[in-house]
Structure formats: structure tokens, C-alpha cells
Amino acid sequence: MIKHWGVSEFLYFGRKEETEKTLISIFNYKDWKLLCNFKLSTDDLVSCNVTNGCILVVDSHFTPSYSVYDFKGVCLAKADLYKDMLGVKCISLASSQQFAVLGCYDGMCKLLNTVTWSVLKEWKHSADSISGSTVCYVEEQSDNGSRFSICDNADVSLPFVKANHDDPYLLVGVGVTRFSATSRYLASRSDAAPSVIWIWDMESLELSSVIVFKARLYPLNGIPHVRKWRCWVWVVTRIRCTSGARRVSWR
Q: Exposed, middle or buried by CB within 10 Å (0-12, 13-18, 19+), for 33?
């Protein structure tokens, strides 16, 4: 089995040998020279990300842990997030290379700092996270289309979906995380509330805004190379609309 990720000027291959050991190989795109090849302490390898000169490795979805290596194969950090639950569902890296965030199956975002690689903050996706300083936007329908209005925090109703445990494609946990282009904010979506976007302030490390849409959201790629644009782009599927979908850009 071979998995590969192309990041920056390097290409990373993760593979399993007959001994069931997981190995990772790093190549330079310029001359395809093998920079390093070493064994990992993980049982599997579902994700490999590079930031701040380190390699962030996530084990299988069944193992809630992560490891950090340098380019020589030395393990710099290893941590278990929790026990007796599924592991990491998605990963995002800040363009500033100061932070990495793990979207987990326990319904929380784990913010890591890239100096010590410890968990700096945990964010829970629930109504309890909404404070007095959180701005809540709610989509409303009108004859001219839809618009967003600011709603009083006490009146906000978050449309959480009750999990059907008989469904083989059970959607749980945090399935989407995206940093803004300047790493000033983090947007996340919990699959328990697929029509809600949570905006976290990276300076105060608190919930800045909640955006409640009328329909489920599907993320598109952002525009990180245009630094003056601080936006995420989402596709909102309208089951009842003949057009099928529309695009929303939130700045």
C-alpha cells in the first residue's frame, strides 16, 4: 500500500512493508533526490502534513493520536488525544506556520502550537461555546433571495442533527476546518450541525462568530495566495431549488 502527499517543494510517500511497519520517504521535487526514509511509530498513516520544518503524522481514523518528526526521522512529539473513541477526521495548517488544527471525531477542534506541539486550545461545537461577545448571523429568506441578519445570542437555535447509529455512513465529528488566508481566523463545521459555520478568533482563542445557513454546506478551496481576501467559499446545496446549488463567499 502506498499513499502520497505533495506539499510545497517536497513529495512524501507513506507505505507499508511486509513486516507491517509504516515507512515514509521524502523526495525533493527539483531533482527527485531522496532526502530521507525512516520508519514511523504508527500502525497506519492516513495523513502527512509539513509545517515549520516538521512533519505532522496522523495514525488511522481508529487511533486518536498524532506524531511529529523532523526530516531526519527523529520523533519530536507524540500524544494521545483521548481514549476509546475514533481519532482525527481532518487537519488544517495555518499559513503563518504557528498553528495546526485537528478536527476530531469527538466533536472538538484541537489547536496545536508548532513549537512544543502540545494542545493549546480545545473548541467544542455546542451552544455552550457561544458567549456574549459572539456575533450570530442567521440566514433568512425573502422575495429578493436570502440575506443574513444579526440575531440575539439567546434567540439563536442551532440546527443539530440527531445521529442515526444504524447508518453505515454515520456523520459525526468535525469534518471541515479552514484557516483564513492570514491565519487570523479559523472556520470549522461539525457534521452534527452541517449548516452551521463556526468562526474562531486566533488572537483571543474564543468563538468570534456563528453563521447559520438554511442548508448543508460543502466547502470549496479558498484563495490563500490573494492575501487581501479573507474569505472562505462554500457551496450550499438546495434540494428544492431547480438550480441545484449556489455559491456563497463570506468575508
A: exposed
Model pLDDT for residues 106-158, shown as the tens digit of each residue: 889 999 998 899 999 999 998 889 988 898 988 887 777 777 788 887 778 88
Length of the chain: 251
First CA to last CA across the chain, in angstroms?
Answer: 41
Q: Binning pLDDT at 50, 70 and 90, where does residue 244 land?
A: very low
The C-alpha cell at 25 is 520517504
The three cell numbers of residue 191 are: 457534521
Query: Which three cell numbers, joined as nine digits, stand for 145?
Result: 433571495
Spatial distance between the Cα atoms of 203 and 147, rounded to a whole number of angstroms: 29
pTM value is 0.80
Neighbouring C-beta atoms of residue 98, cutoff 10 Å: 16
The three cell numbers of residue 56 are 505532522
